[in-house]
Task: structure prediction
Amino acid sequence: MIQLSDIEAAAERLAGVAHQTPVVTSRTLDAAVGATIFLKAENLQRGGSFKIRGAYNKISSLPDEARRGGVVTFSSGNHAQAVAIAADLCHTRAVIVMPDDAPPTKLAATAGYDAEVVTYDRYREDRAEIAGRLERDRGLTLVPPYDDPLVMAGQGTATLELLAQAGPVDVLVLPVGGGGLIAGSATALRARSPGAIAVGVEPEAGDDTRRSLEAGGRVELPGVPRTIADGLQPITPGRLTFEVNARVVDHVVVVSDEDIRDAMRFLFERMKTVAEPSGASALAALLAGKVDASGARVGVTISGGNVTAARFAELLG
Amino acid sequence: MIQLSDIEAAAERLAGVAHQTPVVTSRTLDAAVGATIFLKAENLQRGGSFKIRGAYNKISSLPDEARRGGVVTFSSGNHAQAVAIAADLCHTRAVIVMPDDAPPTKLAATAGYDAEVVTYDRYREDRAEIAGRLERDRGLTLVPPYDDPLVMAGQGTATLELLAQAGPVDVLVLPVGGGGLIAGSATALRARSPGAIAVGVEPEAGDDTRRSLEAGGRVELPGVPRTIADGLQPITPGRLTFEVNARVVDHVVVVSDEDIRDAMRFLFERMKTVAEPSGASALAALLAGKVDASGARVGVTISGGNVTAARFAELLG
Result:
């Protein structure tokens, strides 16, 4: 499906476009976990999350005509902002389908990157259908949030970079939403460090990938999971991401919202850095002892930092 | 009083001990201020603030016998933690005099670095007197929080480093508490960039250095100023720091608590980094338009990041 060469090609496209985010270490953190931890700070990435990697890799790889015609996506989260930025960088237009009750700050942030925002009533309308209509009627190309080989390969560059910056790791821990980040990352890991272990992290209430891996096929949760990790709420794995992850992911562990809050607090107080709930969840699994990492060299992705001060206060006040 | 050579000597002592903190830039910030801004991220320094620079420079410079005898200081803030860490690094003991009603987290953090905490009743006892008694009775050496040439020279290394990392600046903006950071920093700036301007920032209610510079002599505020910037609350400039600052500081501007909150929020939401109120105040002055910086290359020190998530929530929730 995707191979190291796809991720290397993505890294070349992203050079000078995505930030090479720092790898952060902390003696306090190492002591707390009993391991040597390398945090890949994708919260400091352009747009505040790793999502620009996949979005830009996809849009910049489109045939000229398609790229000129513009792109469309549906997302109320980090992918929306990433597509808006990437489209701008590729000198094309982006249309973002967002629910009309999305937080005004998110609508404004997306529009601020010159994207066109099309809102819909999420109780009455289907966003995929709206996006499909925009594809047909306006000649736009869909940029999926995860279920796409170029998107997966782009996300994998975060781990390719981490391994180049930190050296080999024994364990890699990443959050799992739709599964694009871990699909690309675990593919890179398998190729570069064949003996290393790739661990996914899901919220307790949203463990669709864990269940699917155990069942040997994609299962669907009964409804949108209740969790503060709003980036990890898909109810079923992507078709393509699952196909990849079934081969490259070793296992998936789950964390509670309280574990996530603890990790956000740790990052804030000890490391002076801001992670959104989804972004802190991989570290949450380590701090809560959910990952067997004793004595190991462990890579962890802090996948995003898009949380307002007001929301942070609500979560941790 | 202090010269570039003192600061250079301090930098040599601090090599491998203090972190070389990153200089952070942001297109969004540059656009908001209309200048090219270089943030020196001392919130990422060991102990969470620049204070380790002065404390270590002082303690490591003590004659062998004095150093072996141990050190004492009085502080409930970042200087306490810095002295504890620096003493530990110099293989000597530190005694920290703190009010018995200091936040338990601060007491614990200081004790956590193997320092001995001596508490006192701040309504009945005088901390300087207690520290003086400890000096005499136990053969300890006092490490003042700012009013000391070695402490000032140590703090100045933050700016020496900034200029090496970012290149020359036209304007340097720093918070003013007791005046040690700006004394060392403006001395370094004068020597390295003779035409550049050094601007101090104080809270509106705690403008003792501004008033003193205007009066041409040290003035004392009637009481402890009410401000969220708890690191900037001295009621009068240090004797030695004022002597230096009267020569090297161009002027001092003031910020409101609301300006400081806005800067903390900007750092959190846009730059994903945590600053305590005092630590955000230099940036607050720029964002609030209190510093004439249009088109300039501006160095700004984010001086500390020691704020709990709970306190942050209280301030910005």
User: Anything to note?
Assistant: Chain B has a mean pLDDT of 95. Chain B touches chain A at residues 22, 43-44, 48, 264-265, 268-269, 272-275, 305, 308-310, 312-314, 316-317 (CB under 8 Å). The first helix of chain B runs from residue 4 to 14. The first strand of chain B starts at residue 23 and ends at 24.
